[in-house]
Amino acid sequence: MNMDAAGEQRKLQLNELEEIHNDAYESSRIYKEKTKVFHDKMILRKTFVVGQKVLLFHSRLKLFPGKLRSRWVGPFVITNVYPHGAVEIHSEKTDKVFKVNGHRLKPFYEPFCDARCGGSTPSRTSFHCKLILGTVRLRTLN
What we know:
Helix content: 25-40%
Number of strands: 5
Number of helices: 2
Radius of gyration: 29 Å
Largest sheet: 5 strands, antiparallel
Strand content: 15-25%
Oligomer: single chain
Structural class: alpha+beta
Distance between the termini: 77 Å
């Protein structure tokens, strides 16, 4: 009789442990769903159009390791936008055409230059001149 009661007690403990396990699994699943919804809401979808100038992320730039070295190369001109995020870009310097993933691109914004600072070519001196004159205008980027 004592063994039967111990067996019943053990079965109840195993069932309770399985219920706790299932509750923890369900809580984990709910947390993951909420985290995914929050993360997906924060992702900005990039849309590119033909003729737009973009910069390409160069992830294999390991020859000259340095924190201050830019990993973005370009500008390139978009020639074709494929479904599912693929983009065809054209290099103006080398006249080569590449097909890359759209996640490796970001829009290229033309530098601002004022005619009072010496023409249409932006340079470090013209930027310095704008700072001194107080004519630097902040523009909002999309």
